[in-house]
Each structure stands twice: as structure tokens, then as C-alpha cells.
Amino acid sequence: MGTSDAPEPEASTAVDASKDAPRSRFASARRWLVEIGVVVGLYLALTAYQERHLLGTHSAAPSFDLVTLDGARVSLESLRGKRVALHFWAMWCGVCRREEGALNAVEKTLDRDEAVYAVVADSDDVEKVRDYVAREHIDYPVLLGNGDVLAAYHVEAFPTTYYLDGTGRIGSHTVGMATRYSIRARLGMLPH
Predict the structure, then answer these.
(1) CB 50 within 8 A of CB 57
(2) Backbone dihedral angles phi then psi of residue 38, each to the nearest 5 degrees
(3) Which tens digits make up the pLDDT trace of 48-95?
(4) Which helix (DSSP H) or strand (DSSP E) does residue 74 occupy?
(5) 139 - beta bridge partners?
(6) Biggest alpha carbon distance in the chain?
């Protein structure tokens, strides 16, 4: 019974595999980071494209004088001293509908120096807007918008939200759906 001619397993293969494991994890992590970077880059590029025509931050917000569904008048001047989310929307907008819960949640947590006002773009039929607001359980005040205010704020897509500081200057703006956390954060970062 001599020695076996069968090849013995090579120890170097096991060692090579253990050396490749960290390289493989590093390559996987690097690929993952690149993919996240691409997604973030695309998001930022899309956001910049959507907001390209909006009014500049730190500029004075255009004056307005609009009516609520209850007939009360609300003007930019009447909001001085408050941080305001001025939300432009339309009843036909599916994204706006999905954002209603976030705005309701923010409305319930506002400080006395904060406000949310939604400016409805398609306000030709006030009863239709009232029915929509009741059916959708919208708790925040709705202002009846018009073409002049939409043009003054450069609103071309819905939803568009401007965040105004206590002096009536534009702190930031968004186009598209926002979460209640991002709305709260943007309001909270504005100076009084």
C-alpha cells in the first residue's frame, strides 16, 4: 500500500478565497455607493429642473389677497410674523391627493407662529371645492386661487409649495410630493 496518486486539496485555494472575500465585499460596497450616488444625483437634477422657473429663495414673496372657503380674506401682509407653507394644488392632481394626509398631520402640529395655506388652482366652482375638501377631510385652510397668483408665484406644476419666513421672504420651495417630516423641517428652519 504505497502512496496514493490522488491529488491532495490545495491549501492555497482556501487561502486565496479568504483573501478575495474582503475584496469582493469592498467591490460590492463600492458598487452600492455608486448606485446610491447616481440615484441621489438624478433626484437632485430632476428637482433642479422642476424648480428652474420658481421664484428665487431669499426674494420677497409676491403679495396676494385671497378668500377662504368661509369667505375670510387672507393676504401676505396678514401673515407677517408667521412662517408659512403656501401650498399650490389642484383637485385633479393625484400627487396632491396623496399629500393631503401629510398636510393634515402638519396642520395639527403647528406652533402659533406657523401656518399652512393651500391655494387651490381650479377654484372656478366654489361648491365643488367645498365638496372635495369635505370628502377628503382636509383640515388646513384652503384659499381660492386665481391665474394672477399662480402666475406671480410661477406655478407650472402641482403640487408646488413655497415656504415663507416671518418677513414674507421665500425661504425655500418644492415641486412634487413632500412628506410631513420634510414640510415640518422646512417650516422649522425658517426664521420668524
Answers:
(1) no
(2) -65, -45
(3) 656 678 898 999 999 999 999 999 999 999 999 999 999 999 999 999
(4) strand 73-75
(5) none
(6) 106
Angstrom CA distances, 51 to 19, 55, 56, 121, 168, stand at 49, 9, 9, 18, 20
Sequential DSSP letters for 124-176: S-HHHHHHHHHHTT--S-EEE--HHHHHHTT--SSSEEEEE-TTSBEEEEEES
Amino acid at 126: V
One DSSP character per residue, 10-35 reads: PHHHHHHHHHHHHHHHHHHHHHHHHH
The set of cell numbers assigned to 91 is: 383637485
Task: Provide the 3-class DSSP secondary structure of residue 177.
Answer: coil
Nearest 5°: CA angle at 100, between 169 and 78?
A: 35
Cis check: omega of the bond before 159, within 30 degrees of 0: yes
Residue type (1 letter), 68: T
pTM: 0.77
Residues in CB range of 101: below 8 A, 6 or more apart? 180
For the chain, list residues with pLDDT below 50: none
Q: Which residue has the cell 377654484?
A: 123
Cα(2)–Cα(85) distance, integer angstroms:
88
